[in-house]
Inverse folding.
């Protein structure tokens, strides 16, 4: 017998997520001055990016914003080669793209973003990288085009 | 008064890539029926139902309500739990805790998923932070590839080392009638399979499956009346990690390391490699079958490949891992952690037939999910 399925349709259910005070300041600084902001925990003194209100390990409120570098070191890296539907757009995400965690200078955790893979041989864990910004910036993470290797 | 608790039986569906002949409710009912049949219990004997899956795979949010015909929960206390990839293992821990409380004698615990109904990676992405994670994140495969990249960099582990794990698990799955992918693969086939996210290839990764699992937890008042050899729970632990993917330190699976040390301490395990007889490891990709053995303290950092190449974790080895085949051949995500529990208990009960490890007195199961977090249970043939 023929076994049927039912589609949920082509409809969208958009959400509008709060970015918060520190997150908003981070994105505006990125948009207006191409600068990264981190936040320092008063107890363990670790600097986090993006800035958020609570240091999880210390369970402490943070309110000291600090400027951190747009240069850093690549600490984890992959190239996404399989395609899947991007739930943010509803469309298949373009692949391949480089994806990695960058330890920005002056920061204790890492920052995740696209990694330029034009020259794959240069993209290695331990490589020095810098943020490349888009000309038109709108106050979201896409204001950074990608990180590229400077070595 | 806290009671001792045992797993007294379980039921699974024959896991497949797509089950168009049943909807989710009917799939759940298959596993529940098998669990009741094995334990010779009826719906009336069940005091509590705990059910879970990851809602975003099916887009149906109140599974406890919607599935009641299949679960047997009509007019019974029913609880739903969801904790991402660890859903199944969290369900098992909840079953243990609820029966241990002394308030319920028999709990029926159900994990299920119909992963065929949506794009798995898209759905997983919706579990992550919409502002900071989703732009670049590529679900479990992308996140795990980051972990593998760090592990290879630190210890010179190779893709071939990881392929050896796949060969073991796919071979073991051939002895398990409920496994999804029941076909052996070679190291060469793994290495030649399409690259998904460097260094993770198609055959390094679990499939997505349609399947359900039901496990019966019983208190010491009734456990030995239901099962000849109950699998007694000696302890359970779990650990969660940070908010964003970029907060995770990928040098070892810290949640598993931390949870396992507490579990060993609780259960009096001093040398896990020698004392534990079998592990059902929630290991959705091959590199986890190496790195996470180090996090479990089964060997020193960087030494897991040698352990696996030496056959220590094979059937007949000192500590067989994933006699059922584990997750690489079978992954109905909300059921996966609970299948690890069911399979560990089956090994204690001596009912695994084609994939039975000989002389199992102590078994362990794990769960993995979300932002690199871990659940664990340890079972013994002896009452704790």
């Amino acid at each position: 017998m023929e076994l049927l399925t039912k589609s949920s349709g082509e409809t969208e259910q958009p959400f509008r997520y709060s970015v918060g005070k520190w997150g908003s300041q981070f994105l505006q600084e990125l948009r207006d001055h191409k600068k990264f902001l981190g936040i320092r925990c008063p107890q363990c003194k670790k600097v986090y990016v993006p800035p958020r209100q609570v240091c999880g390990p210390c369970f402490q409120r943070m309110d000291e914003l600090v400027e951190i570098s747009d240069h850093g070191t690549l600490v984890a890296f992959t190239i996404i080669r399989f395609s899947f539907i991007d739930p943010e757009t509803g469309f298949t995400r373009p692949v391949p793209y480089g994806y990695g965690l960058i330890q920005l200078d002056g920061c204790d955790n890492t920052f995740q973003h696209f990694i330029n893979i034009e020259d794959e041989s240069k993209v290695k864990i331990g490589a020095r990288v810098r943020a490349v910004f888009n000309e038109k910036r709108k106050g979201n993470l896409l204001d950074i085009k990608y990180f590229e290797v400077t070595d | 008064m806290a009671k001792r608790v045992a797993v007294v039986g379980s039921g699974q569906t024959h896991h497949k890539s797509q089950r168009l002949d049943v909807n989710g409710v009917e799939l759940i009912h298959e596993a529940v029926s098998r669990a009741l049949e094995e334990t010779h219990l009826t719906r009336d004997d069940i005091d509590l139902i705990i059910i879970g899956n990851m809602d975003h795979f099916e887009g149906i949010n109140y599974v406890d309500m919607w599935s009641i015909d299949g679960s047997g929960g009509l007019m019974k206390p029913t609880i739903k739990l969801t904790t991402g990839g660890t859903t199944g293992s969290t369900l098992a821990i909840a079953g243990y805790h609820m029966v241990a409380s002394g308030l319920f004698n028999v709990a029926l615990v159900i994990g299920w998923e119909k992963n065929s109904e949506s794009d798995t990676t898209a759905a997983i992405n919706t579990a992550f932070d919409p502002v900071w994670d989703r732009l670049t994140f590529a679900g479990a495969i992308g996140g795990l590839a980051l972990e593998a990249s760090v592990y290879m960099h630190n210890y010179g582990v190779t893709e071939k080392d990881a392929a050896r794990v796949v060969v073991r698990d796919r071979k073991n799955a051939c002895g398990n009638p409920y496994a999804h992918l029941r076909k052996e693969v070679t190291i060469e086939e793994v290495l030649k399979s399409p690259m998904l996210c460097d260094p993770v290839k198609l055959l390094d990764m679990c499939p997505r499956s349609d399947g359900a699992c039901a496990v019966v937890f019983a208190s010491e008042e009734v456990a030995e009346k239901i099962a000849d050899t109950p699998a007694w729970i000696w302890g359970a632990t779990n650990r969660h990690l940070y908010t964003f993917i970029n907060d995770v330190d990928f040098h070892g699976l810290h949640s598993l390391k931390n949870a396992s040390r507490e579990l060993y301490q609780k259960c009096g395990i001093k040398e896990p490699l020698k004392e534990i007889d079998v592990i059902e490891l929630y290991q959705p990709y091959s590199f986890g079958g190496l790195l996470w053995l180090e996090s479990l303290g089964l060997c020193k950092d960087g030494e897991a490949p040698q352990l696996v190449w030496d056959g220590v974790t094979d059937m007949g080895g000192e500590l067989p891992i994933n006699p059922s085949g584990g997750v690489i051949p079978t992954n109905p995500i909300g059921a996966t952690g609970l299948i690890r529990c069911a399979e560990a208990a089956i090994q204690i009960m001596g009912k695994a037939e084609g994939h039975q490890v000989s002389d199992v007195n102590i078994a362990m199961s794990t769960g993995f999910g979300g932002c690199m977090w871990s659940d664990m249970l340890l079972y013994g043939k002896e009452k704790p």
Remarks:
- The interface with chain A takes residues 20-21, 59, 119-123, 125-126, 130-139, 141-142, 145-150, 153, 194-200, 242-247, 250 of chain B (CB under 8 Å).
- Residues 115 and 345 of chain B are 25 Å apart (CA to CA).
- DSSP finds 15 helices and eleven strands in chain B.
